[in-house]
Amino acid sequence: MSLLSDKSHRRYNPLLGEWVLVSPHRGKRPWQGQQEAPASNAAASYDDKCYLCPGNTRITGDTNPAYTGTYVFQNDFPALQNEGDSSADELREPDPLFHYRAVTGESRVICFSPDHSKSLPQLSCAEIVGVINTWTTQMAELAQHYQWVQVFENKGAVMGCSNPHPHGQIWAQNQLPTEAAKIDANLKAYQLKYDNNLLLDYVARELESGERLVDVNDDWVTLVPFWACWPFELMLLPRFKVEDFGQLSTAQKASLAEILKASLSRYDNLFQCSFPYSMGWRTAPFNAENNQHWQLHAVFFPPLLRSASVKKFMVGYEMLAEAQRDITPEQAAQRLRDCSTTHYLES
Ligand code: H2U
Question: For the whole prediction, is pTM greater than 0.90?
Answer without folding.
Answer: yes
